[in-house]
């Protein structure tokens, strides 16, 4: 006669393990692993091996971002700016960004902001004012961060209102490696600016004003490389300054002007690099020094 006890059917001399004990052991192992991993990360951060606690890495922030401390304090990491960017230039910070984890930033070499939205949709989408057209009066504007005049967007130059409502620059472009700059060497360029495998996109007015296309789908042919100048979305932000060394070779050096907003298009489109760095780069938060 059965007494409905599952242990009554167990072979004599063998103890029966309680039901669910295997799951409990697995859960305990996972908890221990997670605790050790978390403790290790925090420990490394405190020792300085990871910038989690220090947030030592600076980032190029989206247009209209407040100064870094104010931006980090204001941003709620909602990701609204990421969702509205037409070229998907805005990414969210990861573990190595420390206090900036989950905070939006732009990696210009991979995908720059080309203002395909025409109006700074990320600013319009921000619910807290971390990205803003007009900084509150109690927040000072850093010397050299203020633009002398509203930038003119080349794509809107023929429109009744061609300006971009951006009052402070994101950063400032700089010719970081003149020794590899094709223009400085008097060389032209032919082909895909970043190769067939490059995933970045950009608005090309001669293709479609409203729909950015892959840079890889738009090859170039230039007698003298000037991509950083022609592809810059802001009027009068950069130009080629021609030099004569007396050898008859046509040379020019990219010259960054005060209207540069630091969008990063010149860095993204530059077809040459050395040591993982393009000939021209954008320094985040860099200000203009006359």
TrEMBL record:
Keywords: Iron, Iron-sulfur, Membrane, Metal-binding, Transmembrane, Transmembrane helix. This is Ferredoxin-type protein NapG. The chain crosses the membrane at residues 31-52. It comes from the Bacteria. Pfam families: Fer4_7. Residues 1-27 are annotated as: Disordered. Residues 62-95, 102-136, 250-280 form the 4Fe-4S ferredoxin-type domain. InterPro entries: 4Fe4S_Fe-S-bd (IPR017896), 4Fe4S_Fe_S_CS (IPR017900), Polyferredoxin-like_ET (IPR052977), TAT_signal (IPR006311). The keyword S-adenosyl-L-methionine does not apply.
């Amino acid at each position: 006669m059965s007494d409905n006890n599952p242990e009554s059917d167990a072979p004599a001399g063998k103890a029966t393990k309680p039901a669910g004990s295997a799951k409990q052991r697995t859960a305990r192992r996972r908890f221990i692993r997670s605790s050790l991993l978390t403790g290790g990360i925090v420990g490394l951060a405190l020792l300085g091996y990871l910038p989690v606690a220090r947030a030592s890495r600076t980032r190029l922030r989206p247009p209209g971002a407040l100064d870094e401390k104010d931006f980090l304090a204001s941003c709620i990491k909602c990701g609204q700016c990421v969702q509205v960017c037409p070229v998907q230039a805005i990414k969210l910070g990861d573990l190595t960004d420390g206090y900036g984890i989950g905070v939006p930033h732009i990696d210009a070499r991979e995908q720059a902001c080309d203002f395909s939205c025409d109006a700074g949709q990320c600013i319009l989408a921000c619910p807290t004012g971390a990205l803003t057209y007009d900084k509150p009066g109690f927040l000072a504007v850093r010397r050299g961060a203020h633009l002398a005049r509203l930038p003119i967007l080349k794509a809107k130059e023929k429109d009744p209102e061609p300006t971009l409502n951006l009052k402070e620059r994101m950063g400032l472009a700089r010719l970081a490696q003149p020794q590899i700059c094709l223009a400085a060497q008097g060389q032209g360029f032919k082909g895909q600016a970043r190769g067939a495998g490059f995933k970045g996109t950009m608005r090309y007015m001669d293709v479609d004003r409203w729909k950015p296309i892959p840079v890889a789908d738009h090859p170039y042919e230039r007698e003298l490389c000037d991509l950083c100048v022609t592809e810059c979305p802001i009027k009068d932000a950069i130009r080629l300054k021609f030099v004569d060394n007396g050898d008859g070779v046509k040379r020019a050096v990219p010259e960054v002007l005060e209207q540069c907003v630091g969008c990063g298009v010149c860095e993204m489109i530059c077809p040459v690099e050395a040591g993982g760095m393009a000939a021209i780069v954008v320094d985040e938060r860099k200000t203009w020094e006359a």
